[in-house]
Amino acid sequence: MIKNRNLAQKRSRKNLNDLIGLYEINYLKIIKLFPIHKMNEDFNFLIPEGANNSEIKISIDRKSRHTSKLTLYKSNFFQNIEDTEMEIYVYHDARMAEVRRFNGMRQFWLRNKYPNKYMLAKDEKFQWNIFLSEFLNHSQLHGLSIIKNMH
């Protein structure tokens, strides 16, 4: 039993190469969906959630040739679920995108000690970036454009 548990723990460990690979994948997805170098203003779209749509707002907080800082904000219609906010750094020269903050929490380390003060998972940084990757996939498949009234 203990051998199997140790083997499962070894398989589930994330390393720096896995995280960097995820950053590279997220960069390609972000650039495909939101060509930052061509954008000069915030970008909004909708995602279906049951009978309602949630609005997604992506704002470019800082844009340069090498690094851009985006904020992705998703509002929730359900009162019991908090809104989601991600601060994403896009490193154009390295072709990577990293979630630096998630709902106001900042994460520096690849792995956390557990238990910890904020009850973060051992691989919290990895989980944030997996969430971004899955969110970008979902946005590409199900996102709805907001058409502004031209009248």
Furnish the topology, listing elements before pairings.
Layout: H1 2-12, H2 16-33, E1 43-49, E2 52-62, E3 67-74, E4 84-91, E5 96-102, E6 105-106, H3 124-142, E7 144-145
Antiparallel strand pairs: 1-2, 1-7, 2-3, 3-4, 4-5, 5-6
Helix pairs in contact: 2-3
Round the mean pLDDT to the nearest integer and report it.
82
Q: Spans of 5+ residues with little confidence (pLDDT < 50)? A: none
Report the span from N to C terminus.
69 Å
Structural class: alpha+beta
Percentage of residues in DSSP E strands: 25-35%
If strands are numbered along the chain, what order do they take across the biggest sheet?
A: 6-5-4-3-2-1-7
Order of helices and strands: HHEEEEEEHE
- Supply the number of helical segments: 3
In total, how many beta strands? 7
Tell me the radius of gyration.
17 Å
Question: What does the largest sheet look like?
Answer: 7 strands, antiparallel
Q: Give the fraction of residues assigned to helices.
A: 25-40%
Basic shape = globular
How would you describe the oligomerization state of the chains in this entry?
Answer: single chain
Compute the number of structural domains.
1
In short:
This protein has 151 residues and is α+β, with helices and mostly antiparallel strands. The protein is built from three helices and seven strands; from the N terminus they run ααββββββαβ. Strand 5 and strand 6 form a beta hairpin.
